Input
Amino acid sequence: MPVRSGSYVSAGHHREHADRHCTEIKAKKTLEKLSVLNAPKATAIRDGAEVTLAAEDLVLDDIVVFTAGKQICADAVVLEGEVQVNESLLTGESDEITKRPGDELMSGSFIVSGSCKSRLTQVGEDSYISRLTSRQRP
Output
């Protein structure tokens, strides 16, 4: 039995709709992961001593120590040290990126190796991760 062109277009349209739905599900799962990442702790230097603080207690210009395995919980600029960062949840880029003094760190990414002291440039709702997740919420 010959295939009618209308059936072919309909099948193509169904496939396109399914692909779009699959992409939306992946994006939703990524955003769910990002929202979970919004509640880490950080080591800040206050009055010359290292203290562990909840992310919501960090303030602009705090000096924070980031080490391997930790999530970057606020946007920052590296002051000293060197780290390899995984930004794949934010950018889709799977390669590690080396950050040195003067380089920016985006909240929501992870320190893969190394350590650094950084000055916070955006915190709370102003941080990259908060702006990204709030834009995606209905």
About this structure: The two ends are 47 Å apart (CA to CA). The first strand starts at residue 41 and ends at 46. The chain has a mean pLDDT of 78. Strands lie at 41-46, 49-54, 63-67, 75-86, 97-99, 104-105, 110-122.
